[in-house]
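Sample intake sheet
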Amino acid sequence: MTLELKVHPLFFKEFATKTWISPYEIIRELIENAFDEDATRVIVTVLNNGNVVIEDDAGMNSDSVTKFLILGSPHKANENLSPKLKRIRTGRYGTGRLSFLTSFDNMKIKTNLDDFNKTLVINGEALENLITGQAQLQELKESTLKRNGTEIFLNVSKITIDLVKLTKELKKLSILKYPLFEVYVKYSENFKEWDLTDSQIVKSPDVQGYKILVNIYNPSISGEIIIAKRPLGQDEKGIAIMVGNHVVLRSTFGFDNKLNRVTGYVKCDQLTSRFADKSALIENDIYTKFNQQMRDFVIEQVLPSLTEYEDVLITREESKIYKEIDKVMGQA
């Protein structure tokens, strides 16, 4: 008897529907995909029927569409810089395009680049057919875009999208700090192509404070840690760990009660993020070295600076109080 390891036809659909957590995470993933392909502007429109449209100004040609449709393609890892603007890409595994099935029934992609245009639909049925190694997709004959760019329609939402929560979630994107990249969100009764009417730009929170540059070798770690002037929100606390331009998670490296005013980021491309949703780090030898290097850096650089900076802030606050007392006494 020949023993064979097989893949069940439902595996790909199960993988797609049970890996990503929420529609907000899905939208973030697709915005990062646009960034990776040199988009400079992204418009996210939430429609009153629950559908979501994500537009960008980076169209795909025939070669780009072919790469887009190869699941698990290593091309982003092998070609880690975007073609024109030479951005460090956020993606690694080419599986994010499956994320829509967590919260939507199907995804329609419409793209145009110069003389090339294509409109196609991906749904759960197509994923079930991937057992053979490939699946035929539905191609639509529709009017082409009036510009170079891509539209992604996320159709038949399984959950109501809250615009306020969406905006809050998108503010976590590290790529918002990049020049030549803007993200807008809006709510609309009807969809109108590439229309900024009633939209609002999403900006990364600005944190003022004392900045500590990180530049460590073996493994290579770079970044900026900030001791904040103001109290930090829950989403800002901790040091963001980035692989490429994707924030995998935030960590205090075991100093939970001492780093309440500490934020910022460190980047280490030698780390490996979890396949698909990239929300955790693989704990291998590089991870162990990275974790120890960061713990040492916190002990040697961050904690002493934190104590010194907090003393300065306290002194300034005391000075303000004394000035107010003098002012009141002078008026007495």
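Comment: The first strand starts at residue 41 and ends at 47. The longest helix spans residues 285-331.
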